Amino acid sequence: MRAVIQRVSEASVVIEDSAVAQIKKGLLVLLGIEDLDSEEDIRWLSNKIAKMRIFSDENGLMNKSIQEIEGNIIVVSQFTLFASTKKGNRPGFTRSAKPEIAIPLYEKFVSTLSIDTVREVQTGEFGADMKVSLINDGPVTITIDTKDKE
């Protein structure tokens, strides 16, 4: 599982001219899932994101988590995070999980993150053509791959 976590002052997801998710201060999480991912990856990544201290405290230091600032979260499926660019000019996506594997893992990740952060997690729509807008706060962008946790 691979995630790009962006601290945002606002973010939204639009599908066919309709806003399906919209937040103010919080996190936009782009989530890529591969065939090898498991519920262990979900638990580890969700816990990591819930506890990650990337929001400023009263001294301007990154010492607060999403829970401490009572921020919001949007999770968007992003199969292109597993793009292979080794050959040619057209990326390959063979490492990205097929929908029958990815959708249940994606849904489980969203529900686990909601439990871990004690807040509703908004989402895009798996497989849809989405327009994602954000104002990156900082900018702060962090990538995490569950296969690199050890």
UniProtKB/TrEMBL annotation:
Alphabetical list of InterPro entries matching this protein: Daa-tRNA_deacyls_DTD, DTD-like_sf
Cytoplasm keyword on record: yes
GO molecular function annotation: D-aminoacyl-tRNA deacylase activity
This protein's UniProt keywords: Cytoplasm, Hydrolase, RNA-binding, tRNA-binding
Annotated localization: Cytoplasm
Top-level EC class as recorded in UniProt: hydrolase
Main location: cytoplasm
Motif extent (Gly-cisPro motif, important for rejection of L-amino acids): 138-139
UniProt catalytic activity: glycyl-tRNA(Ala) + H2O = tRNA(Ala) + glycine + H(+); a D-aminoacyl-tRNA + H2O = a tRNA + a D-alpha-amino acid + H(+)
Bilayer-crossing regions: none
Listed EC numbers: 3.1.1.96, 3.1.1.-
Its biological purpose: An aminoacyl-tRNA editing enzyme that deacylates mischarged D-aminoacyl-tRNAs. Also deacylates mischarged glycyl-tRNA(Ala), protecting cells against glycine mischarging by AlaRS. Acts via tRNA-based rather than protein-based catalysis; rejects L-amino acids rather than detecting D-amino acids in the active site. By recycling D-aminoacyl-tRNA to D-amino acids and free tRNA molecules, this enzyme counteracts the toxicity associated with the formation of D-aminoacyl-tRNA entities in vivo and helps enforce protein L-homochirality.
Subunit relationships: Homodimer.
Domain notes per entry: A Gly-cisPro motif from one monomer fits into the active site of the other monomer to allow specific chiral rejection of L-amino acids.
Family: Belongs to the DTD family.
Record-given protein name: D-aminoacyl-tRNA deacylase
Naturally occurring in which organism (per UniProt): Pseudofulvibacter geojedonensis
Gene (name only): dtd
